[in-house]
Write a structure and sequence with these properties.
The protein is built from three helices and 20 strands. It has 308 residues and is mainly β. This is Calcium-binding protein.
Length: 308
């Protein structure tokens, strides 16, 4: 498993003058701050080779490694949806095309794909995986890779993260250079990166409830249908009401399998839903939220009403 307290990715041109102690190490914290680490380190830093910072004795810059990322797919092309706790494990697949003399599966080669929000030179946030991608050489010049992004909403996300993210990949060929050495000759180290390789959306998990009352009810009488639409609040770590959006009230007859939309209802400032209908026949009422760019669609389980 990767040591998250020291993992980072790379951005920008090949210039390693920005090497410094990772923020999480400098502060003595065990928690991973990927943004600060990414800004501090301009090459790949990981649990596999954790730098303590470059020294004045370091010389040169790495040579350009002929390796390119392609066919990047994140979460099978679907938006990533996260609640407020636990871990969301997101599958990632990609290929790396390289010179025949480059072996991305070698022990002294580091390779990863991460996603970031904002500008690559100054990201607002970055998400990584707990483990290194696993690559298999499908030919002398192409490797097929599988990995994950492991997202911890309670530790890594804020509400501003519900947006579009970009993928960035990097490869470092250490060529038996000791990354812990006090005087690294960077001219012996190969490096390649690919930016904006793909995009993915991160969304706040939605929840929806419904209650139709009274039950039972006489035909022609009023039924009040209430509910609540909430979604993950990554700033507070709780689920809070989604205000000012519409949910559809739908009805399904007792012996039918198809719901029909009755009306649209707008949520209150606390995410509440409330409307009335006239009782006609036995059946199920539910609310349906079609989703937005920041929260996925969700349907409440149908609530049965017995009409007398």
């Amino acid at each position: 498993m990767r040591i998250r307290a020291t993992v980072a990715a790379v951005t920008g041109a090949l210039a390693l003058s920005a090497f410094a102690v990772p923020a999480a190490q400098a502060t003595g914290s065990d928690s991973h701050n990927p943004v600060d680490t990414l800004k501090a380190l301009h090459a790949a830093v990981s649990g596999k080779s954790a730098f303590t910072g470059a020294t004045p004795a370091d010389t040169g810059t790495p040579y350009a490694l002929n390796a390119k990322f392609g066919s990047v797919k994140i979460n099978n092309g679907k938006p990533i949806v996260a609640g407020t706790t636990g871990k969301v494990r997101v599958p990632v697949t990609f290929t790396v095309t390289h010179d025949a003399g480059v072996d991305v599966t070698a022990a002294d080669t580091e390779l990863d794909l991460v996603v970031y929000r904002g500008q690559s030179a100054d990201p607002a946030n970055i998400l990584v995986g707990d483990d290194w991608p696993v690559c298999v050489n499908s030919s002398a010049t192409v490797a097929s890779c599988k990995g994950t992004l492991d997202i911890y909403p309670g530790e890594e996300l804020g509400n501003a993260d519900a947006t579009t993210w970009k993928a960035l990949g990097y490869v470092i060929d250490w060529n038996d250079v000791d990354p812990y050495a006090d005087d690294i000759d960077w001219t012996k180290v190969g490096y390649a990166e690919g930016d904006a390789l793909a995009t993915t959306k991160l969304q706040r998990l939605s929840k929806l409830t419904v209650n139709a009352a009274p039950e039972p009810v006489k035909k022609g009488k009023t039924i009040t249908v209430t509910g609540a639409l909430t979604r993950a609040n990554w700033d507070s770590g709780k689920y809070t009401g989604y205000a000012g959006v519409y949910a559809q009230l739908q009805f399904r007859k007792k012996n039918s399998t198809t719901y029909s939309t009755v009306k649209s209802v707008k949520t209150t400032s606390t995410g509440g839903l409330k409307t009335t209908v006239k009782a006609g026949v036995d059946g199920y009422y539910r609310y349906v939220f079609v989703g937005t760019s920041t929260s996925p669609a969700v349907s409440a389980a149908g609530d049965f009403v017995d009409v007398k």
